Amino acid sequence: MNGDTLHSIGELARRTGLTVKTVRFYSDQGIVSPADRNPAGHRRYGADAVARLDLVRTLRELGLGLPEIRQVLERELTLPEVAAAHAEALEVRIRVLRLRQAVLRTVARRGATAEELTSVHRLARLTEDERERLVGEFLTEVFDGVGAEGGFGGVARSLTPELPEEPSAEQVEAWVELARLAGDAGFRELLRGLAEDEAAEGVPGAVPRPGLAVLVGELAGPAVAAGVEPGSAEAAGVVAALLERYARLVGVDEADGSLRDRLVERVEAMADPRRERYLGLLAVVNGWAQPGSSAEVLGWTGRALALAPPSPGRVTAVGGWGRSSG
């Protein structure tokens, strides 16, 4: 072999961008072998060693271990086979990293304690079966036995989070928060109360839907959009119309003194920010469009109910605003 084509370890290191120590290590491991030795016994490498080490460096940067690299170099495995296997391994690693990222983001945002960190990490690592069991227990506690016809089955399905097989970091983070919310006894009690109220009002099908929620949207929505103040005469007209329509919805006399208190309680429960937060998180987890917010309209309605004077007479709805008569 022509001596001009042979390289010392130092020259090989410079040509490949590796350190002398690394080249010597690969040589000792048999990854690259010297073509000859000089009279002093120093190793000399041929041009093929440069190409071989370039490939080794590339495979190492991609995360392959020496056993896999050796198999490729010795042609026990083809490069496409190794690439496919390593790509699958990287997918698993990416999913693990997404979970860790979601846990850290949640902890950073919430300022969690050590105990909460453990809880968040556990929720992020739940298997699909474990997630289904957690959600099933939550929905059973909220809806089981509500409504004689079981009309809330569709609602339960619509409130079910389904984390995809390859979720984004945002979806994992949303799932962690949603799971913590679903495990909140107070939140479960809130939704259970909303479901029972809807069932008692004879409006099965959602929490809340379509009775009171629609009435509030139809009557208070335009007032909010128009900038009507909750304590104004116009707002009092909206409240009067809402009370009349709600009395018909629940089948009680409009003059019933407890009607306003009942309506206030219902609106306050509907306005609980946890309900809207759950729906927003659910949309992220399931990849749905974000639902419209009802917080402003519900908040306005609650204030208007508190500020409006008792209606002196029967009220009829006119043009969505309402007017007093009698």
Write a structural description.
The chain has 326 residues and is mainly alpha-helical. It is built from 15 helices and 4 strands. The protein has helices at 9-16, 20-28, 47-61, 66-73, 79-110, 114-124, 128-143, 153-158, 169-182, 185-200, 211-225, 233-250, 259-270, 273-286, 295-307; strands at residues 36-37, 43-44, 315-316, 323-324. The radius of gyration is 34 Å and the shape is rod-shaped.
Task: Pick out its properties.
single chain; 326 residues; mainly alpha; two-stranded antiparallel sheet; two-stranded antiparallel ribbon; 15 helices; 63% helix; 2% strand; disordered C terminus
Overall mean pLDDT:
83
User: What structural class results from the helix and strand content?
Assistant: mainly alpha
Number of helices: 15
Coarse morphology? rod-shaped
* Major sheet details: 2 strands, antiparallel
Rg (CA only): 34 Å
Distance between the termini: 116 Å
SSE string, helix = H, strand = E?
HHEEHHHHHHHHHHHHHEE
* Spatial strand arrangement across the major sheet: 1-2
Q: List segments where confidence is low: pLDDT < 50 over at least 5 consecutive residues.
A: 203-209, 313-326
Strand composition percent = under 5%
Helix content: 55-70%
In total, the number of strands is 4
Give the helix/strand layout.
Layout: H1 9-16, H2 20-28, E1 36-37, E2 43-44, H3 47-61, H4 66-73, H5 79-110, H6 114-124, H7 128-143, H8 153-158, H9 169-182, H10 185-200, H11 211-225, H12 233-250, H13 259-270, H14 273-286, H15 295-307, E3 315-316, E4 323-324
Antiparallel strand pairs: 1-2, 3-4
Helix pairs in contact: 1-2, 5-6, 5-9, 6-9, 7-10, 9-14, 11-12, 11-15, 12-15, 13-15
